[in-house]
Amino acid sequence: MRIREQLRALTICVLLLAATSTFAHPFKCSSAIESNFNGTAIPAGDYVWFNAVLKVNGLGSAPATIFATHAGITFTANGHIYQLTVPDSQITFSSSITLATTEFTRLSHEIGSPLGWKTELPSSGLAGNDLLAGLTFAVPAGGLPGGIKDVIWQATFSSDTSGLTVNWQWAAAVYTDFSRKYNDLGVKPVDDNKASKYKNSDHAGTPEDFKAYVIGGGTGGGGSNFTGSYSGTGSCALVRKPSTSLTVGGSQ
């Protein structure tokens, strides 16, 4: 219980620090979601694909870009506290974009991130969720036990556009073979089955080129669940006065 309380306290401190940090973008908020892994143990040498999706409310006719920074995943397993750094994200919505895409590449100099997830999306007409970010975690020697509790993903969202609200979730799927080169994964950028080059019913965040290697574990059961089952939904409005939120709930 003491470790759980320490992790939550650490997360709250990180959220408050990120929320009060100086950004080039005036509208911002910080959010964290706590969820649990299922009971399937994860062998050493396998890979956990942490992935997150979002829906943005308040988009208008003008282009809008949301940045996700200061993101990290924290959990405890086998007596060890893991603190994983999630790559930053730059997500642009525009009526001039006709094909949804994502790539791991150089981001805007405004957020000081040399590399991260750059996703470009049509500003309207998309069904379902859109990719927020992804992280590959190679399972260390000794593996990970089933039933890991209180896995926390936190992030700070910012934009130059006012009136936006971010609703987001995360999941974790396990793969026996994977790539640490993110552009080799073939990550699907949207749920929508027509908006990207992947015209199927897979969820946003699916690593299309490695689907054959998914197994149970994390928040997923394997089979056709390529992203894992989602956490509860975190929500925060991007405002001038920093705001924070913490969502607690097991995977769905």
Structure write-up:
The protein has one domain (2-247). The protein is mainly beta and 252 residues long. The strands form two sheets. Strands 1, 3, 4, 5, 6, 7, 9 and 14 form an eight-stranded mixed β-sheet that branches. Strands 2, 8, 10, 11, 12 and 13 form a six-stranded antiparallel β-sheet that branches. It starts with a helix and ends with a strand. 8% of the residues lie in helices and 41% in strands. The model has no long low-confidence stretch (mean pLDDT 92). It has one helix spanning 2-20, and strands spanning 27-35, 47-57, 64-77, 80-85, 88-94, 101-105, 116-122, 130-138, 151-159, 165-175, 214-217, 220-221, 234-237, 244-248.
How do the helices and strands line up, and which of them pair or pack?
Blueprint: H1 2-20, E1 27-35, E2 47-57, E3 64-77, E4 80-85, E5 88-94, E6 101-105, E7 116-122, E8 130-138, E9 151-159, E10 165-175, E11 214-217, E12 220-221, E13 234-237, E14 244-248
Shape: globular
Mean pLDDT: 92
Number of helices: 1
Strand % is 35-45%
| Fraction of helical residues | under 10%
Structural class: mainly beta
Q: How far apart are the termini?
A: 23 Å
Q: What series of H and E elements makes up the topology?
A: HEEEEEEEEEEEEEE
Low-confidence stretches: none
| Strands, total number | 14
Number of domains: 1
Biggest beta sheet attributes: 8 strands, mixed
C-alpha-based Rg, rounded = 17 Å
